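Researcher: Here's a chain I'd like modeled. Treat it as a single chain, no partners, no ligands.
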Amino acid sequence: EHMVESGGGLVQAGDSLRLSCAASGRTFGNYAMGWFRQAPGKEREFVSAISWSLGRTDYADSVKGRFTISRDNAKNTVYLQMTSLKPEDTAVYYCAAGRRQLAFNTKPPTASYEYSSWGQGTQVTVSS
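Model: Modeled as a single isolated chain. Structure tokens:
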């Protein structure tokens, strides 16, 4: 399994960015795909996740209403559309694939230990 993130960069507060995560090496079924982030000196934290088959989503409270996760099954790609970015969104953003298939219509997990395949990360820097 291989995850490759892209789309990070340096933006100003209030701007938007779209991150992409291209996944390969897995037949997805109803696995979860998640986005996490880690800021300097802080622990990695959950941002958003989506179930591959049914598209159920979940978001951290800090990004609700500003970030939108989506997936393109044909391209095996997950996106994170980020709007109204804030300086506190500055972090390395990682995508990851869930360890196990989800039961029907359940929300994707938010805990990092539920994810087994991680990308290398993409830096997002938001200036004030």
